[in-house]
Amino acid sequence: MLPPRSDEWTLVDVGESDTRVYRRGDVFAKCCDRSGVAELAAERTRVEWLTGTGFPGATVVDWLEAQSDGACLLTSAVPGVPGDALPPSAHGAAMQSLGSVLRELHALTDCPFERPLAAVIATAADVVRRDAVNPDFLTDEWRLLKPSELLDQVVAERPYVESVLEPVVCHGDACLPNVFFDPRTLKVTGLIDLGRLGIADRYTDLALTAIQLHDEWSADPAPFFAAYGLSEPDSRRLEFFRLLDPLTWG
Ligand SMILES: Nc1ncnc2c1ncn2[C@@H]1O[C@H](COP(=O)(O)OP(=O)(O)O)[C@@H](O)[C@H]1O
Ligand SMILES: [Mg+2]
Q: Which Gene3D superfamilies match (predicted)?
């Protein structure tokens, strides 16, 4: 893996998908080995695209690539603190900001990236076939079943989800560590980790965010949905995308 060539870089994160993230001042470097270059390059084009829309987030500072060693995506530091670092007193206001920001993201147009449901389910089928599902991502209830049985549930619900599909620009991994907030105003300052950004059903993001609010913040997500503009979220789609996501990593 290509580490940024300087002692001034501090390792801040070792990611799930064989990436390492370093920081030096106001710049983050996300680095991967040769096998991850296409994926990291896809993230780079998504960061550039989102920056072009004026939506708050990191900007691309540089791209380093070496034939044998892999690549590094250098981005500007998004100000503020990640959602998982906010104190409980901040959760109410922060989730309202998050709801309206996701609504704005989902309202963007002319996105060149697609994340079709068929492709996401195919990824899940591949992860399950390789027996690579990470049990840490599953609930106790799901762990009682075989991953192939979880996939069967996804496949069984697919016709329903396709019958009500609402394709919008989704973040694709809308979990709290990927959303930054101003700790004073509790407004969202930006979104990071855009490797899965693309047009997909809006519940891709809503399901992930809502379950995080529940699990990480012990919060009722109703104010989040209200700020997003949904008075009656579709529980079937929330369940569907909540179950599909953990099957796609690995
Ligand atoms: N541009 C950035 N601004 C602020 N923090 C960042 C930035 N890029 C990465 N980070 C920090 O590094 C962590 C890992 O980076 P991320 O792109 O989310 O990788 P992963 O795919 O491993 O989740 C983030 O959760 C965040 O704390
Ligand atoms: Mg992340």
A: 3.90.1200.10, Phosphorylase Kinase, domain 1 (3.30.200.20)
Q: Rounded distance, CA 126 to CA 133, Å?
A: 10
d(CA 237, CA 235): 5
Residues of the chain with CATH 3.30.200.20: 10-76
Contact, 208 vs 175, CB < 8 A?
A: yes
Angle at alpha carbon of residue 206, lines to 204 and 210, rounded to 5°: 125
How many DSSP H helices and E strands does the chain contain? 8, 10
Q: Is 220 marked as binding a ligand?
A: no
Report the alpha-carbon distance of residue 63 to residue 45 in Å, rounded: 11
Q: Which residues in the chain are classed under CATH 3.90.1200.10?
A: 81-248
Q: How many angstroms does the Cα of residue 157 sit away from the middle of ligand 1?
A: 33
Residue 7 has pLDDT above 80, yes or no: no
| Residue 18 confidence (pLDDT) | 80
Tens digits of per-residue pLDDT, 190-225?
A: 999 999 999 999 999 999 999 999 999 999 999 999
Q: Nearest-5° angle of CA 167, CA 249, CA 44? A: 65
**Domain 81-248: homologous superfamily in CATH:** Aminoglycoside phosphotransferase (APH), C-terminal lobe (3.90.1200.10)
CA nearest neighbour of 169 among 58, 81, 52: 52
Proximal ligand: closest to the CA of 24: 1
Ligand 2: centre distance to CA 222 (Å): 24
In the predicted model, what is the mean pLDDT of the chain?
95
Determine the CATH number of domain 10-76. Answer: 3.30.200.20
Longest pairwise C-alpha distance within the chain: 53
